[in-house]
């Protein structure tokens, strides 16, 4: 019965997402322009390097990485910080807390419908197009299964970070600056903007101990590895699982401690 309750929210989210077709078209056009810029930028970087392999990645590897990172971003982005911030400012947060479902779960499953639509409308077509254009550069094997598992863990980590940052709005009652700062940090340190392979060694080591690299770099590294070693997979997925559990616990504890800060209309 609980699953049916959650799937009802997923279905409602799918219906809502399909109502805004123009926004989807605008997003696709914007992504195409971004990817064109990325293509010529990195083509120039590799041309100036004078070698086909830079930091262990070919131009094709880098392009696949960045294109799929953009697709993953569109697929996993939930705008949780904006939602929590708006609800706090409007006072709607009080009504949400009265619902017979934990707020954290309610918010996640409300956005789960967008996962489904974005997967079929953006990520899957992008993945198929990349695989076709690169003539099989993406190995189709067990790495796809590990990639799916890694993405599921990445979604949970990303949501927990969003929810934790959104909770800060209970103290600041402001969302714009917090969300922009969060996006910049996550996109940079997760490898979505620049592959982590291009980071200088000290910074790469530091980033390896942070949860952000588990969002985009981990699943994409698994996907691009045509022959993943058991030890590498164990470390990558194990690290993701660890951060998944840690971030869930931290976000829940911070939310519970911060509920005392709720004020509505001066109350």
UniProtKB/TrEMBL annotation:
The keyword Nucleotide-binding does not apply. The keyword Lipid biosynthesis does not apply. InterPro entries: ABC-2_transporter-like. Keywords: Membrane, Transmembrane, Transmembrane helix. The chain crosses the membrane at residues 20-42, 62-85, 106-132, 144-172, 184-200, 233-255. This is ABC transporter permease. It comes from Ruminococcus flavefaciens 007c.
């Amino acid at each position: 019965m609980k699953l049916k309750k959650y799937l009802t929210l997923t279905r409602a989210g799918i219906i809502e997402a399909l109502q805004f077709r123009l926004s989807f078209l605008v997003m696709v056009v914007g992504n195409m322009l971004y990817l064109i810029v990325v293509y010529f930028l990195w083509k120039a970087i590799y041309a100036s390097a004078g070698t086909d392999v830079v930091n262990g990645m070919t131009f094709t590897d880098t392009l696949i990485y960045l294109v799929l990172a953009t697709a993953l971003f569109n697929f996993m982005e939930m705008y949780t910080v904006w939602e929590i911030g708006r609800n706090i400012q409007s006072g709607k947060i009080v009504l949400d807390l009265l619902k017979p479902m934990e707020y954290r779960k309610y918010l996640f499953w409300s956005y789960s419908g967008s996962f489904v639509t974005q997967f079929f409308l953006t990520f899957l077509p992008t993945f198929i197009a990349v695989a076709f254009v690169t003539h099989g550069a993406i190995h189709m094997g067990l790495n796809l299964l590990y990639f799916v598992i890694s993405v599921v863990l990445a979604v949970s980590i990303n949501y927990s970070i969003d929810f934790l940052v959104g909770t800060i709005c209970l103290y600041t009652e402001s969302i714009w600056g917090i969300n922009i700062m969060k996006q910049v940090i996550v996109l940079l340190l997760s490898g979505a903007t620049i592959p982590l392979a291009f980071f200088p060694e000290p910074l790469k080591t530091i980033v390896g101990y942070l949860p952000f690299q588990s969002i985009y770099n981990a699943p994409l590294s698994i996907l691009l590895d045509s022959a993943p070693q058991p030890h590498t997979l164990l470390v990558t997925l194990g690290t993701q699982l660890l951060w998944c559990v840690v971030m869930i616990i931290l976000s829940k504890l911070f939310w519970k401690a911060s509920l005392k800060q709720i004020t509505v209309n001066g109350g």
